[in-house]
Structure formats: structure tokens, C-alpha cells
Write a structure and sequence with these properties.
Order of helices and strands: HHHHEEHHHHHHHHHHHH
CATH architecture: Orthogonal Bundle
CATH topology: Farnesyl Diphosphate Synthase
CATH superfamily: Farnesyl Diphosphate Synthase
Radius of gyration: 19 Å
Distance between the termini: 21 Å
Number of helices: 16
CATH class: Mainly Alpha
Oligomer: single chain
Largest sheet: 2 strands, antiparallel
Structural class: mainly alpha
Shape: globular
Length: about 300
């Protein structure tokens, strides 16, 4: 199966769960409609795809796979909330996302803000709910929440906004992107393993495979972001599904602005190689890494 076929299969696997998040009269609420507009806008569903890859690689049972699906939908809700808020005029001020008008262009800034809030809050409710029913999932729920907060995505966005129009070094850019983009990718790559093993924090820190998965996520996250920075310069909105040239417009530090296009391409190749090296270690430990190898190849060459 190609990575494209696996992505299509993942979308079919995910959509019913996303459709069940809000039910009955809730769907009549305008904020729910706005949230679902963005949640159902499509996209690559890369994070759920990574969750499936990890689960399959780790030999996930059918029963546990249902819980991986639950967490995958929850992570996609967190990711979608971040996109809604990212597109607002106070942040990136975008009017196109996944080839469609952004949420605030359709529903207004106030409702779009609430839609993002609703997705995040509902995601947290879901994580609490499953952890109450299955206490062995408590750390996995905490891990996902932490990676969405100040130590993860929000912290990266904070650095990003504070750095606009400023000259920053490569070290700070690494921290920015490791948090803003990398943290949710880490949640996608690692969380299914925590679920399968029912790990607490101490076990997660000491487990060799968990450590390798965290390293893999770091390299995949950087590769994804570097390619994103290159596409912002090279691609066309009709292909990318969102506006290009935003980084230059907003005077943002990126891997392209700091390293140049050639330097960014070389850094992307380095991150791909590092990811492949980690996958070789996982393969030696008995894991089937073909899916992640195909994904890593795709991330280096993707055009959208």
C-alpha cells in the first residue's frame, strides 16, 4: 500500500469518529457549526496517520485500536483549533486554509475564536473522560495536553509572534518549531505506544522504544516544518491550499530566511537521514518500519 492509499484509508477510519464528537441539538449551535466546518475541511490528516502507523508498528490489538482512534480524533481537534486561531487577523491573518475560506471569513472573528476554544475544551473533556474510564491512559492524556500548551504548541506560537520583525538565531528557531509544529507530531508518533503499554511517566521516560519514537518525532517534525518553509517560497496557493509568501510578508524567521533555500534543502535532507537512522534502530528491535519510511520520503518531497 502506498502512503497515499494509507492516507485515504486513514481519513475513512477517522471521519466517523470526528462526526460523532457533537451530537443532537449541539449541531444546531453556530459555534459547533463553525468548529465542524474547519474540522471537516479535509487536509492531510497526517497526525492521525502517524498514530495509526505507530499503533500498527507496535502490534496494536483491535480493542486498543478503537482507543487509538479516539485519541487520533482528539488530537485532530486540537490541531484544528490551532489552525482556526492561527488564521485570525490577530495572528497570521489568513483567508485561505485547505483550499477553502478560513473559519473567520465564513463565520466572523468572534465565532471563529469560540470555535477554536470549543474544539480545545472538548478535546480536554474527551481526554479526561477516557482516563477516568481507563486510568492506565492517564499519562497519555496528560502528555497530549502538555504538548498542546506552553511546553509545546502554545509556547512555540508565543515565540513565533514575539519574534516577528526581529532577528533571531537558529537555536531559537529550533525551539520555536520543535514546540509549535513538533509537539503535536510528537503526540501523534508516541501516544499510541503509551496507550498500548499503559505507561506512567516514569515508565515512559525509561522505555527504550518510547525514547526512539520521541527522537523519530523530533526529526519528522523538523523535516515537516522545513519543507513547509520551502513551500511558502516555492509553491502556489492553488496547489498548497493556503496562501504563500506569508513568512516574508510578516517578516518571520524561517529555515529559508536563516539558511537560504539551498541551506534549508540540505537541512531537510539531514533530518530525513536522521529519521531513517532512528527507524533502523527500531527495525533492529523487531519493528516493521516500512510505513514510517514511506512517510518520511513523502514529507521530504510533498508539494502541499
Amino acid at each position: 500500500m502506498t502512503i497515499g492509499e494509507f492516507a485515504s484509508e486513514t481519513a475513512k477510519w477517522l471521519e466517523p469518529e470526528l462526526g460523532s464528537v457533537f451530537t443532537g441539538k449541539q449541531k444546531d449551535d453556530i459555534t459547533v457549526r463553525a468548529a465542524m466546518y474547519s474540522l471537516n475541511a479535509g487536509g492531510k490528516r497526517l497526525r492521525p496517520l502517524m498514530m495509526r502507523l505507530t499503533a500498527l508498528m507496535a502490534g496494536c490489538s483491535e480493542e486498543k485500536m478503537a482507543d487509538v482512534l479516539y485519541y487520533a480524533a482528539t488530537l485532530e481537534m486540537i490541531h484544528t483549533y490551532s489552525l482556526i486561531h492561527d488564521d485570525l487577523p490577530a495572528m497570521d491573518n489568513d483567508d485561505l486554509r485547505r483550499g477553502k475560506p478560513t473559519c473567520h471569513k465564513v463565520y466572523g472573528e468572534g465565532i471563529a475564536t469560540l470555535a477554536g476554544d470549543l474544539l480545545l475544551n472538548t478535546a480536554c473533556e474527551r481526554l479526561f473522560k477516557i482516563a477516568i474510564a481507563k486510568p492506565e491512559y492517564l499519562y497519555a492524556s496528560y502528555f497530549m495536553c502538555r504538548n498542546a500548551g506552553l511546553e509545546g504548541m502554545v509556547g512555540g506560537q508565543s515565540i513565533d509572534l514575539d519574534s516577528e520583525g526581529k532577528t533571531i538565531g537558529l537555536d531559537l528557531l529550533y525551539e520555536l518549531q520543535a514546540k509549535k509544529t513538533g509537539a503535536l507530531i510528537e503526540s501523534a508518533v508516541v501516544t499510541p505506544y503509551y496507550l498500548i503499554k499503559g505507561m506512567n511517566e516514569k515508565q515512559a521516560e525509561e522505555d527504550v522504544t518510547a525514547g526512539l519514537l520521541r527522537k523519530l518525532a523530533g526529526h519528522i517534525g523538523l523535516a515537516f516544518q522545513i519543507r513547509d518553509d520551502i513551500l511558502d517560497v516555492e509553491s502556489d496557493p492553488s496547489i498548497l491550499g493556503k496562501n504563500t509568501g506569508k513568512d516574508i510578508r510578516d517578516s518571520k524567521a524561517t529555515f529559508v530566511t536563516l539558511l537560504g533555500e539551498q541551506g534549508a534543502a540540505e537541512k531537510l535532507s539531514c533530518e530525513k537521514k536522521a529519521a531513517m537512522d532512528v527507524l533502523s534502530e527500531l527495525e533492529k528491535a523487531g519493528y516493521d518500519t516500512d510505513g514510517y519510511r514511506a512517510l518520511t520520503d513523502y514529507l521530504e518531497k510533498r508539494d502541499s
